[in-house]
Amino acid sequence: MPVRREVLEVTDRIRDRSEAGRSAYLSRISAARKGGRHRGSLSCGNLAHGFAACAAGDKDLLRQGEAPNIAIVSAYNDMLSAHQPFEKYPDLIRAEVRASGGVAQFAGGTPAMCDGVTQGRPGMELSLFSRDVIAMSTAVALSHDMFDACLCLGVCDKIVPGLVIGALAYGHLPFVFVPAGPMTAGLPNDEKGRIRQLYAEGKASRAELLEAESKSYHGPGTCTFYGTANSNQLLMEVFGLHLPGASFPNPDTPLRDSFTRMAARQAVALSKANAPGIGEILDERSFVNAMVALLATGGSTNHTIHLVAMARAAGITLTWDDFDALSRSVPLLARIYPNGAADVNSFHAAGGIAFLISEMLDAGLLHDEVQTIMGQRLDAYRQEAFLQSGAIRWKPAPAASGDESVLRPASKPFDEQGGLRTISGNLGRAVVKVSAVKPENRRIRAAAKVFGSQAQFQEAFARGDLSGDFVAVVRNQGPRANGMPELHKLTPALGVLQDRGQRVALLTDGRMSGASGKILAAIHTVPEASDDGPISRIADGDVILMDAVEGRLDYVGDEKAFLAREGGKRDGDAVQYGFGRELFAVFRQRVSSAEEGATVLASGTEAVS
After folding, report:
1. Quick one: which of 5, 206, 478, 592 could link to 596 by a disulfide (CB 3.0–4.6 Å)?
2. CATH number of the domain at 420-574, please?
3. Domain 5-35+67-184+219-396 architecture
4. Could you report the per-residue pLDDT of 531-564, keeping only the tens digit for each?
5. CA angle at residue 139 from 138 to 144, to 5 degrees?
6. What predicted TM-score, i.e. pTM, was given to this entire model?
């Protein structure tokens, strides 16, 4: 099926605006590729240090210089349920690489923090910045020039984007991304949400809430809702950086372990074949495919930041207008919590990524002729994996969805348009996730109630001060103010108010969780309040128009007088110390806007200028 005109037009615009940056980036990785394996140019002392701790057989292979040496970069820690399974992966990988005629060395670890643990806590202010730290730590792990390919072990929110950005600094090398899979289904997500709202109203005890949360998050693997972590897994498969079907098999199963072993073999094979590096694989078409898949599934709003930052590392410039243009022509094909009742296990059982990619390719929504770790077409990813005599085999994706309440064909979408919008006006620009918001709640005109933190909002809710229709303005939450924490603690209270019949919405320069749900929320607002953005001029009682259908974000009234108000106001002094926050002062000073990826790192273009 030819690629649809609307998709081609966005791809062409990205290619045109990125021409200079992409060319500079490709020149850089071409220069890095010259001369073959760099390990051969190391001095004897360098090389001896590099394999000093290896087993004798591995040392002999590296001494001879022809065997591929595969790096392992892992975000393992055993507090994160999603990353705990990675503990045993290095041993599986070393054994499989050795059997394939190569050597695998654990090159380095990256930090991995859990937004689910830090929600509403000071540590959340480090969360977004941790992505760039992960990118830098990936670069450090690979800095020894000892490696011919790399396996990246990561799953969750900032971790996978950070690994991708770090990998793109070594864009001449092949990379295979290795997931760990979601935990098995626990307490249904809608029941968890119901109990959270009861607790917010004082109608459920802390013990009851903890019991519900513990039944939801109950074992190894990613959280089962469709937040940023599981959006990451979808994107890595659509990028062609996972093995086909690798994203959603559960941890500690024979299929999952077989995927890990096969990923090791594939890294060796790519190295021996002198295959394209990750910087060549991830081109403009790859990023358009990723945006389309995100929109078609109602994925995480965090990727309006992360995809921009990842693309920037490859010399490619994405804008929120690209997301918006695609969203208006990409149908919504999946309903996974918070955009529906099902979890990712149900999505996978209904046909999962293989069915989704097959449908989108047949509908002309994806570029098929892209490079992947499996070859030169995305077509390889319309296959479903299964085990046969202990080995992974593939079969065509199912011809029909196993559950059309979760996953639908392109001919019968849940919505003719995708899940994200960009809105703009005299208050700036912001992102809105509409996939879980009922059509009647996608527009509001109401008075503002202004808060300087989500804690202030929660206190007002607890006092019973939030009556009538209103737009909650929670500002000074952008990257320059305090690292742009997620404000997921607002969701239960806003949900309670909406369920009571009030018309409510949220306007913020902060982030919401990847599990943003049924409340109309304009997030990531730029310019942020700390950058003298118009959001800093809003006062209690100002009338705000938010319209996700027409794409408007406006102060309603005398615009000239409004914009003449003193801006850059702080709603109380931001705390910028404790919990390591003082260590990130330079990040807050140098970070780019949310629309530019909220990053402190040089782009692929800047790296050669």
Report:
1. 592
2. 3.50.30.80
3. 3-Layer(aba) Sandwich (3.40)
4. 999 999 999 999 999 999 999 999 999 999 999 9
5. 110
6. 0.94
